[in-house]
Design brief:
Helix content: 25-40%
Number of strands: 9
Structural class: alpha/beta
Order of helices and strands: HHHHHEHEHEEEHHEEEE
């Protein structure tokens, strides 16, 4: 592209506001895929990529999709990771999701309709009634970081990983409050899913960095699956 496109500041602010509102309620992945498709449709692929790469500081997860990503490819990643995850979830009854990531939940709740999903929202500003209206009776909101009554070998915790490296990843701040030593000793598995496997070009200000070894599993298409030793969790049982 010889000349950078001229995108009015008002449009940039509108995109940023729209993305933020969607991410609060749908999660970063669903918001990023929805906004990416809209931006590409409006500006064209080349201009959309330029826009995301130069303005991505306001929406780092969306900017990570700048290299010709799409909702279809994200869904393909989720299905690929779901195949890995199904083995772990086979004997589980309760799935605690830290972060209301609808891109994953839309698929997972259909594939595992026999299990109960307990959603810990990643934002206090989400319209939870509207969020729940998209799902069946096996999806519930858990509005506390106290997960005591869900502990046990039949329960797992799932959260979402962005900007994964060999040692760390970024995730929702509520994960940091929940996944302490006592939680790790009370659940059979703590699983992080990387469902956008693009590197982050900008620092994600609304996420926190957490060590990979805080999880029992990190499931990804681009990184070697991580499985910690069973000795790590023996104290729970």
């Amino acid at each position: 592209m010889q000349n950078a496109p001229i995108i009015p500041a008002s449009e940039k602010h509108a995109i940023s506001r729209a993305y933020t509102m969607l991410a609060v309620e749908m999660g970063h992945v669903a918001a990023a895929t929805a906004m990416y498709e809209e931006i590409v449709n409006h500006y064209g692929l080349e201009n959309a990529c330029w826009f995301l790469k130069t303005n991505g500081r306001a929406f780092p997860i969306l900017a990570a999709m700048a290299d010709d990503d799409s909702a279809h490819r994200v869904r393909k990643r989720i299905y690929d990771i779901s195949d890995q995850l199904s083995v772990i979830l086979r004997d589980k009854t309760d799935i605690v999701c830290i972060g209301a990531e609808s891109a994953w939940l839309d698929i997972a709740t259909q594939e595992h309709s026999d299990k109960t999903f307990h959603i810990v929202p990643h934002s206090n500003d989400a319209n939870l009634d509207r969020f729940l209206s998209n799902y069946g009776e096996n999806v519930r909101i858990h509005d506390s970081v106290d997960l005591t009554y869900l502990c046990g070998t039949a329960s797992v915790i799932i959260t979402f990983a962005f900007g994964v490296t060999s040692y760390t990843f970024y995730t929702y701040p509520v994960v940091y409050r929940i996944c302490g030593r006592d939680t790790r000793q009370s659940f059979s598995e703590l699983i992080a899913l990387e469902i956008i496997d693009s590197p982050l070009m900008f620092y994600p200000n609304d996420l926190v960095e957490i060590a990979v070894d805080e999880m029992t599993h990190l499931l990804s298409r681009t990184h070697e699956p991580i499985r910690r030793s069973s000795v790590w969790k023996l104290a729970a049982f």
